[in-house]
Design brief:
By secondary structure, this protein is mainly β. The protein contains 1 helix and 9 strands. Strand 2 and strand 3 form a beta hairpin.
Length: 199
């Protein structure tokens, strides 16, 4: 937690670049991002990640802070997970679906905050609430069924997860785009493309 507090302090105390207050239009603070996501053990499940971001400090600083709310959803899909429960080569075969909601606070760090193209690092902390549903059976190494088909199983859990990633901001006239790859805890990875929304 100390590293997160240190980054937050930097974000609050870092002054805007020279000329930022000389009549220039303020940079948009609200972003909406969408892209593919992978979750589960060995990124078994593929789905979509949607995220809304609001910058609490100016984006034209070397360190900026943002509040985030996101969601991830995967359609029902087949899974195959290796296991040693029934000997070498055995696996769990079945169907699964999952979804989650996240609320977090992240900080982005860049060396070129006012450039047309601005690569950055992102780190932070998120509260995650997830739901999942699965069913299947265990298969032995020779392909025979080792355990009968299990009934559908649903579960839910909540936890705090570290957020780390890299991104690239780009400005094209009045348009701002943001490409980002991130990891949320150990379960979820996402690649999103976002755009600034002006109100």
């Amino acid at each position: 937690m100390r590293w997160l507090l240190a980054v937050i302090c930097l974000g609050v105390l870092t002054p805007p670049p020279p000329g930022a207050a000389q009549g220039q239009a303020p940079a948009p603070r609200f972003f909406l991002a969408l892209g593919p996501a992978w979750s589960g053990w060995r990124s078994t499940l593929a789905g979509l990640h949607l995220r809304a971001e609001y910058y609490l400090t100016r984006r034209d600083r070397a360190v900026s802070l943002r509040a985030e709310a996101g969601s991830r959803w995967t359609p029902t899909q087949a899974i195959s997970i290796p296991t040693i429960l029934y000997g070498d080569g055995s696996s769990f075969e079945g169907m699964a679906q999952s979804a989650d909601l996240t609320l977090g606070l992240t900080a982005s760090v860049t060396l070129w905050p006012t450039g047309r193209f601005s690569p950055y690092l992102v780190t932070g902390l998120a509260a995650v609430q997830s739901w999942s549903r699965s069913q299947g059976y265990y298969r032995a190494g020779d392909g025979a069924m080792a355990a009968p088909v299990s009934p559908p199983h649903s579960s839910t859990r909540g936890w705090f997860a570290e957020v780390v990633g890299v991104g690239l901001r780009a400005r094209f006239g009045n348009y701002s785009l943001q490409l980002e790859a991130r990891r949320i805890g150990t379960d979820t990875r996402a690649v999103t493309l976002g755009t600034a929304l002006r109100f």
